[in-house]
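Backbones bend. Our protein:
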Amino acid sequence: MFDISPYLWPEDPWLRIEPPGNVRASYAFKHTVGLLLQPQRILEIGVRAGYAAAAFLAACPHASYHGVDADNSQHGGLPGAVGWARTMLARHFPGRAIRIEAPVDTRQHGPDGSGYDLAHVDGDHGGRQTTTKHTKHTKRLQKWRNRGSECVDASRRTRLGFFRVFRVFRGDGSCL
């Protein structure tokens, strides 16, 4: 089973809130998705501290990675997290093609998605906003979508507890 702990940012407040078992299971699952799909080019919208990037890159030794994150406190972000992601990914995956952009607003700027085998849209985990974020980015990914796979990660805390939705869509529209 994939171990996310070497990639975690000690200053990440999310790690003090989220149960460790949930953190391990979430990234072990993403690692498994990477093992199954074996993409060569990965696009991620919502990098934050780079945990999903680490899971995918560990599973796909020949993959290149392109991440986009605003690196601010909006939409589930954490200022400074992208800096950690860049440093951590370079340390753990030396020589790999890894690029992370931090535009002011990822809803307005970012890649069109063409040429990627896997796109991971990591929502802000706030319910409706996550769906809105995914819809806006999916419009940009239309050129790519018929060839690759897309992962959508959305979780939310409610009065009744915690739930998570993680879907993997293949280019033909089917779910994995």
About this structure: Residues 127-137, 139-146, 154-165 have pLDDT under 50 and may be disordered. DSSP finds six helices and six strands in the chain.
